[in-house]
């Protein structure tokens, strides 16, 4: 309801909830959640406030209105008694977005800033179901942005939007070596004029209440049975030493790493190095419950305390592992036969066999038929579309035409410049193909001849 003061919630809809008695059956709970949905634009984090009611709706045959439901019901009424006044944006205004995530929901608030005032425009909230509740924190933050952009598409199309966050959201969405899910979101968001800003001083009370819920004490979570899996193996040969690491996410996605050591290491030291590095990487990609597998009996037994540790270097490794264990909510390591650790073993032997420390991306490809010769054709063009991508990635230059600029930003998400070479991300997000014709044909020949395996050096 639009008034001279701003946009206000319909008083009759508010009164309907304030006068409502505690539900005594499923139909009354459904009526309550429907009334909340009608006012969701005005309710900060409405999905989280409604979670106890949604849990009741899942138990149709065994209706139970417990203490948690009654408490949430009373808190909702208190909030409705002081609903914030919303405003509408002015043409060409820059709008600002604050995001919030919890294990069960994502929320946001879109605001307008005028001089020293911060005025809310719209609240958005969504419950996370199924696998979405298991996303890493940075993925949930990106999901909150995507959900908001879909819900408030007219605002995003007609206004520049500044996302105020202290999380590395821009870097995460801008990296082509991230997950395929994040790349799809980055492409979807590229049509909007979105910038990422550090969170500033909170001035509006409605915004302060929203932020306090974000930065307050974290809610207690029900311990999850699902665990990330870590397979590690170390290798020490005459050519050198290395580690093979395979990290499996909750969704079954595998991250494979072959790491060449720049120092000499015994077999046991290589096994420890592989485990320490693997734990660090698993933590960086969002693992909270980790189950590690190693085929080294010595390493596993020493970590469990079954074997005595006499060497000083092993003591230092155990101290490192103890330090990283505190990064996880739960950690367990299990010894497995070498044949069950074959993938990590192959990666470690590949890494130790490399003769130099040069970082490389190696891709496995399938060749159905033999070829007697390989023809490389170099095409030159003064208006090469790849140069436009290079200009955007390196200098931030865009075409003057808004439509061309939007298409270029969407396309550039799938590319990466490393060492003056433009790489393209194919269907799998871990490896990159050298874009042809950007270098001399001799480089292309060397690259194509060297395609033997797919390994990523790092993933954040």
What does the model show?
- Helix content is 38%, strand content 18%.
- The chain has 460 residues and is of the alpha/beta class.
- The chain has four domains: 11-80; 95-215, Ubiquitin-like (UB roll) (Roll); 228-353, Ribonuclease H-like superfamily/Ribonuclease H (Nucleotidyltransferase, domain 5), CATH 3.30.420.10; 359-460, no CATH class.
- A five-stranded mixed sheet has the order 3-2-1-4-5.
- Helix 1 (11-18) packs antiparallel against helix 2 (26-38), helix 6 packs parallel to helix 9 (180-189) and helix 15 crosses helix 16 (402-412).
- The longest helix is centred in the middle third of the chain and has 18 residues, at 267-284.
- The protein is globular and about 80 Å long.
Relevant terms:
4 domains, 38% helix, 13 strands, Nucleotidyltransferase, domain 5, Ubiquitin-like (UB roll), 17 helices, 460 residues, alpha/beta
SSE arrangement:
Blueprint: H1 11-18, H2 26-38, H3 46-49, H4 51-57, H5 67-80, E1 95-101, E2 105-114, E3 117-127, H6 137-151, H7 153-158, E4 161-164, H8 169-174, H9 180-189, E5 194-197, H10 205-215, E6 228-236, E7 241-248, E8 254-260, H11 267-284, E9 289-294, H12 297-304, H13 312-325, E10 330-335, H14 342-353, H15 385-395, H16 402-412, E11 415-418, E12 421-424, E13 433-434, H17 441-449
Parallel strand pairs: 1-4, 4-5, 6-9, 9-10
Antiparallel strand pairs: 1-2, 2-3, 6-7, 7-8, 11-12, 12-13
Helix pairs in contact: 1-2, 2-4, 6-9, 11-13, 15-16
């Amino acid at each position: 309801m639009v008034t001279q003061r701003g946009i206000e919630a319909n008083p009759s809809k508010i009164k309907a909830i304030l006068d409502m008695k505690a539900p005594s059956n499923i139909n009354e709970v459904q009526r309550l959640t429907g009334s909340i949905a009608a006012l969701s634009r005005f309710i900060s984090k409405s999905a989280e406030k409604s979670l106890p009611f949604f849990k009741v709706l899942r138990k149709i045959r065994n209706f139970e209105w417990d203490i948690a439901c009654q408490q949430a019901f009373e808190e909702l009424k208190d909030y409705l008694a002081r609903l914030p006044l919303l405003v509408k944006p002015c043409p060409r205004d820059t709008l600002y977005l604050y995001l919030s995530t919890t294990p069960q929901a994502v929320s946001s608030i879109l605001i307008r800033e005028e001089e020293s005032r911060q005025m809310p425009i719209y609240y958005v909230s969504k419950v996370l179901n199924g696998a979405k509740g298991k996303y890493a924190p940075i993925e949930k933050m990106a999901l909150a942005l995507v959900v908001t952009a879909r819900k408030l598409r007219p605002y995003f199309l007609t206004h520049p939007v500044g996302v105020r966050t202290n999380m590395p959201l821009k870097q995460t969405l801008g990296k082509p070596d991230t997950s395929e899910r994040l790349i799809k979101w980055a492409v979807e968001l590229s049509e909007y004029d979105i910038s990422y800003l550090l969170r500033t001083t909170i001035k509006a009370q409605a915004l302060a209440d929203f932020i306090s819920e974000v930065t307050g004490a974290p809610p207690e979570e029900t311990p999850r049975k699902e665990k990330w899996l870590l397979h590690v193996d170390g290798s020490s040969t005459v050519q050198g030493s290395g580690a093979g690491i395979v990290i499996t996410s909750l969704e079954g996605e595998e991250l494979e790493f072959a790491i060449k050591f720049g120092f000499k290491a015994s077999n046991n030291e290589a096994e420890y190095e592989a485990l320490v590095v693997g734990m660090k990487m698993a933590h960086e990609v969002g693992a909270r419950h980790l189950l590690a597998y190693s085929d080294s009996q010595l390493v596993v037994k020493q970590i469990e305390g079954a074997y005595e540790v006499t060497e000083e270097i092993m003591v230092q490794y155990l101290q490192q592992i103890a330090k990283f264990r505190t990064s996880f909510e739960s950690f367990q390591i299990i010894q497995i036969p070498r044949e069950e650790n074959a993938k990590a073993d192959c990666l470690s032997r590949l890494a130790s066999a490399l003769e130099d420390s040069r970082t490389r991306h190696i891709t496995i490809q399938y060749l159905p038929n033999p070829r007697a010769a390989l023809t490389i054709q170099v095409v030159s063009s003064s208006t090469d579309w790849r140069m436009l991508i290079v200009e955007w990635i390196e200098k931030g230059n865009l075409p003057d035409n808004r439509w061309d600029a939007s298409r270029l930003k969407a396309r550039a998400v799938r590319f990466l410049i490393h060492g003056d070479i433009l790489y393209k991300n194919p269907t799998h997000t871990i490896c990159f193909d050298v874009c042809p014709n950007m270098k001399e044909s001799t480089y292309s020949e060397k690259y194509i001849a060297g395609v033997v395996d797919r390994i990523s050096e790092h993933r954040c």
